[in-house]
Input
Amino acid sequence: MLVVCPVRHFADYLRQSGGNTVQRYLLARGGGGDLGRGAQRTYALQLAFGNPIRLEGHADEQALSRRVIALWTNFAKTG
Output
């Protein structure tokens, strides 16, 4: 399981050790236009680096990208 789903395995470990959920989001579909090309596992990175904003993606993708950027910025500030 660790090899196939390392993120899920790590999340289960944190849950079992009493960790609290800080933030969770579900990507129900890939990006539109050029954002959807290539490996979908990189879609979260595209959101974090603002690609939907810079490349004029869908409005919902831009909003999600702004939210992801805000979450990472807050994490960097406060830990």
Summary: The mean pLDDT is 75. The helical segments are 6-16, 43-48, 51-54, 59-78.
